[in-house]
Amino acid sequence: MHIREELQITKPLEPGHEVALAILLTREYVARLFDQALYEPEDISDQQFNVLRILKGGPKDGYLVKELRCRMIYRFADVPRLVNRLEARGLVKRCENPADRRGSRVQITPKGLALEARMHAQHQALCQQVDRCLAPGERDQLLSLLERLRNDHRAQVEALGR
Question: Residue by residue, what is the 3-state secondary structure of the chain?
Answer without folding.
Answer: CCHHHHCCCCCCCCHHHHHHHHHHHHHHHHHHHHHHHHHHHHCCCHHHHHHHHHHHHCCCCCEEHHHHHHHCCCCCCCHHHHHHHHHHCCCEEEEECCCCCCCEEEEECHHHHHHHHHHHHHHHHHHHHHCCCCCHHHHHHHHHHHHHHHHHHHHHHHHHHC
